[in-house]
Structures are given as C-alpha cells and as structure tokens.
Design brief:
heterodimer, A: mainly alpha, Non-ribosomal Peptide Synthetase Peptidyl Carrier Protein, Chain A, 5 helices, 0% strand, B: alpha/beta, Rossmann fold, 44% helix, globular
C-alpha cells in the first residue's frame, strides 16, 4: 500500500467512524466516494482532511479541487483508487515545482 | 471579543492593518499578519509572513503553518487592499490586474484556505473589506470599485456556502480614512465623497474596529452575508 493510499484510507476510516458509515470503515481501493458515500458537502470535508494530512506527512501544498479535478469527465473523486492516483500526481507535481 | 483568539489579518505593515493588529494584540490575542514587505510590528504574539496575497502557494503555506502552530483560526480579516484613481480609459491593463489580484484574489485565497480550517472547528468569522465607492459608483474608480463589488458578491455567496459550517462572512465598507490608501486622491474628490455621507466626516480606525467587534462578537451569530457601509452611505 502506498503512503498516499494509507492517508486516504485512514481519513476515510476516521470519517466512517465519525458518521457511523460501514462502507467507509471498511474502505478499500474500490470504495465508491462521490455519489454513494459523499455528497458535494461531504467531498468538501474529505478534501480538507486529505489536503491537511498530505501537508503534514509530505509537506506538499496540494489543492485537491483544482481545475482538472472539477473538469475531468472521470472525476478523481469517483473511488479510492482514482483519488489516490490523482493525489500521487499532484504530490509529484508539487515536488518537481 | 474574548481574548486568546487567533486572528489572521492581511496587509499589516501599515495603515488600517497595522492599527488593527496592534489593537487585537493589545487585547492579548495572537495575530498572524502578512504584507509584501517586512514586519513593522514587534510583539511576541505577532507572527509575520512576507508574501503576495494573490500567490496561491504562499497563502496556502501561511494558512497551513498557522494551523500546525495554533490548531485553529478564529477570525480572518481580509484587509490587504490597493486603491487606484484613474479614468477607466486610461487604466493600464497591468494595473487593473494588480488591483484585482490584491483586492479580489487575495480575499478569495485567504478565505478559501482559512475556511478549510474553520470548517473543522465548525466556527469562525471572516471579515472582508469593500468600499463606499461601490454603492456610490464613483467616477474615476471603475476598476477599484469593480474589484470591491466582486468582494461583496464573494462575501454573500461564501456566507451562504459556509453558513452550515458555523462560519460567518461579512464585509465592511469604510468611508475615507486618512491612510496611505487615499494619499493619491485629490482633496476636492475626498470632500465630494464625504458630502455624499449622511455623517460628513472622515472615518477613523475606531469606527472600523467598532464595526469589526460587532461583527465578530459571538452575539452576532445570526448575522452573515452582510455589507456594512460606514458614514451613512446607502446602497
């Protein structure tokens, strides 16, 4: 499991614990995010948590809700796998300046 | 307001931002300020960042560093602003963009990033700055007033979107105050403007502090999305 994947899953488990959502408590790569487990407000909270964790762990100042995330036909918030892949891309871009 | 609060105030090197910082520091609060230049405040509860408020990375760095150090932000005062007096036909595009960058995008970036912290705490107050040039549609201030009209709209809509998270957003529109912001405006123009006010005098720092105090007071928990113009200027 990549470190980004661990961060995302930890955040989902934490949110699942807070909201009593079994889907999130047992989240894995295939867990659906937007539409099933998160509405648009839920995505805002998820974004805030993940950005903060990524900053704490990697020192990377990513903004998850950038133009690509909002305009991609296949939203990175579709499921855990797509979100992790997208975050890894942003962290890599941030590292390369 | 209660003491030991954490405030972020933008544009703190001089003028209103400097005075607001000194006031809130004198009450025992922690103030994080910023400006393009070095700090002019020496206080153990003050921390300064040199940055451009429209630089996304710099703003994110400041806000996330504050979160790491203090855990939360109670109040954000988007004070940083730049004014310009020019006929719109002779306003350079570059200057128009600079005005928007500081007045609108600076407010937007700080509000967005600080709100992300406030959301988790389910509380917080954001104060934006507009100008009476908006309701008065002052000739010679097209771009400046337009940038502040954008701030007013941002205030209303962000208040709507953040209300459910316990975050309130309001704006203050001061009348001319004797600061650097108005130093380039001809005396006759200022007198003309003051004549439009119901209460005909220059504003002062106490007028602004009083309004901020009212808006950030927990007792004002039912007030959001509002713009308060000083001096008796009506929309």
């Amino acid at each position: 499991m990549s470190s980004v994947s661990k961060i995302v899953l930890d955040v989902l488990h934490e949110l699942g614990n807070e909201d009593g959502k079994d889907d999130l408590l047992n989240a894995d790569d295939s867990t659906v995010l937007f539409g099933r487990n998160f509405d648009s407000m839920g995505i805002v909270m998820l974004t805030v948590e993940i950005e903060e964790q990524i900053f704490d762990k990697f020192g990377a100042q990513i903004v998850l809700a950038d133009e690509r995330a909002m305009s991609q036909k296949t939203s990175p918030f579709r499921n855990v796998k797509t979100l992790v892949k997208y975050i890894e891309l942003l962290v890599e871009e941030e590292k390369n300046g | 307001m209660a003491d030991n609060q954490v405030l972020i105030i933008t544009g703190t090197r001089k003028g209103l931002g400097l005075e607001l910082s000194e006031y809130y520091l004198s009450l025992g609060n922690t103030v994080i300020g910023c400006s393009r230049g070095p700090s002019s405040i020496e206080n153990e509860n003050y921390q300064h960042y040199e940055l451009d408020v429209s630089n996304e990375k710099q703003v994110i760095n400041l806000v996330r560093s504050v979160k790491a150090a203090h855990g939360n932000v109670d109040v954000l005062i988007n004070n940083a602003g730049t004014a310009a007096m020019n006929h719109f036909l002779t306003t350079p595009y570059k200057r128009a963009k600079e005005i928007y960058n500081t007045n609108f995008f600076g407010t937007f970036l700080f509000s967005r990033e600080v709100a992300k912290i406030m959301i988790k705490a389910r509380k917080g107050t954001i104060i934006n700055f507009t100008t009476v040039a908006v309701p008065l549609n002052l000739a010679g201030e097209a771009v400046y007033a337009a940038s502040k009209a954008s701030v007013e709209t941002l205030t209303k809509i962000s208040a709507k979107e953040l209300g459910e998270f316990g975050i309130r957003v309001n704006a203050i529109g001061p009348t001319p105050i004797k600061t650097d912001l108005i130093k380039g405006i001809p005396k006759e123009k200022l007198e003309e403007l003051i004549n439009e006010q119901a209460i005909k005098r220059f504003g002062n720092i106490k007028d602004v502090i009083n309004t901020i105090e009212y808006l950030i007071d927990p007792a004002s928990e039912f007030i959001t999305g509002q713009t308060i113009y000083l001096g008796g200027i009506f929309d």
